[in-house]
Amino acid sequence: MKILALESSATAASVAVCEDETLLAQSFQHSGLTHSRTLMPMCRDLLENCGLTLEEMEVVAVAAGPGSFTGLRIGVAAAKGLAWPGDKPCAGVSTLEAMAWPLAHLEADLCAVMDARRNQVYNARFQARGGILERLCPDRAIPVEELALELENRKKPQILVGDGAELCYNELTKRGLAVALAPPHLRLQSAWGVARGALELARQGALVPAAALAPVYHRLSQAERERLAKVENSKGEEQHG
Fold this sequence. Notes:
It contains eight helices and eleven strands. It is of the alpha/beta class. The chain folds into two domains: 2-95 and 189-226, Nucleotidyltransferase, domain 5 (2-Layer Sandwich), CATH 3.30.420.40; 98-187, 2-Layer Sandwich (Nucleotidyltransferase, domain 5). Strand 6 (107-117) and strand 7 (120-129) form a beta hairpin.
């Protein structure tokens, strides 16, 4: 099964083509340019350089969240645009799970973390067992302190992966927890992990049509939070008016 995978959930962008579990090609860019400018040219150039066509791709996969609200929207919109003309099935893959897949060959606990700001991280935990991932909790937004308490109870060394890894490493080591950073080349999000997660969804019969593909934010955007706060404030003023 040939899978075209997109990753634009954070500052880095990447595109990969895989056949089942084999990576055929990957393009990675961490230049600071906006994903709206880089993602589609990366897809076009990657396929062209591999001598492949979009028509040959059997699945279009994308990191669907959590992550940057803008980055997720760009990635999902690009995946829809690529899949729609050929009516190709799509996979909306957990960003956190995708980050864990490159380390699945280990025998270890993996803690995937992305900086969600406001003293929180997007997090999911996995146990890696020789190429298999066992999920230990759902994707969530969680305070770092709460995550630390959870890991204290787990009582197992953790490998931190994701763009929030260094942030968590500093906080967790202060508490005396046994944590290690994933190697730099495996720490950030990559499209290969998205493709590997998509393969699992395909095996489970969980692919969706392009129309059903949607970002999974796990938290309201700042604009939505501010709007709700204004609504609550106006209600309070009416009750006391």
